[in-house]
User: What shape does this take?
Amino acid sequence: MKIVKYIKIAVLFLTSVVLVSCSKEDQVGESQLNYNQPTKTELDNWIGINYLNPYNINVQYKWNQNTVDNSRYLFPPLVEKVQPALEIVQKIWLDSYKTIGGADFVKKIAPREIVLVGGVNLNSVGTRTLGLAEGGQRVTLFETDYIDRTDRANIKEFIHTIQHEYIHILNQNKPFDEKSWAAITPVGYTADWYNYPIPVSNEIGFITSYARSNINEDFAETASVILINSKVEYAAFLAGIKSPTALAALKAKEALVVKYFKDAFEMDFYALRDEAEKNTNAVIN
Assistant: This one.
């Protein structure tokens, strides 16, 4: 009886070994890992040549739910809209800073990723979010599908986004004089900035209504609005301000922006503006 019992135990042990062995073989044979490298498209190669290689900026245009707000109706850009949008950003933003700031300026200070979104990022209060800067490492640009390079106003609005968000990145590297800035318009900042028409905000010393949200946005808006307008266009804007107090405030803010670029980066802000204007004309024409 004991011999029979030992034989049964031995058989059960061997069976267990065989089952474990088979299980391991099945796991190896049915691996779900994909070691194949994705095939690069002509667009991917163009991005590598114009963004990734020279500036170490990755461009994400394929859908990734981890980089967008999934509570909103957003979608990836049309593939045929990606390169035209990036060409505009390259010409007006990258090339302008490269010419005035030096070949290595954007290489050293830049978002390491640009995310393109095709549609409108509409907020509950009726405003649109045109762009986001996250931690100085990623910039998201919305409404890529609606860019029209024959329309100057459209191009200015689109490039306003990257200019504005890049100012935030510059400020994160070298802060501006917040104390002096806050003293220019000590009142007027409000979380309800979207309830005020732009001309009303202009007449109390703010370049846009969004500039009234806080001093950081005020600085970024002031710098970026000047950068997307020519010298003549901005002079015409100032000439339309009726309040002497508001005009003085706008000019004081402009002076602080110019000083910031000179002191922080040894850069001529007006030369940067003129270069951006020249490149904007090249894009539109």
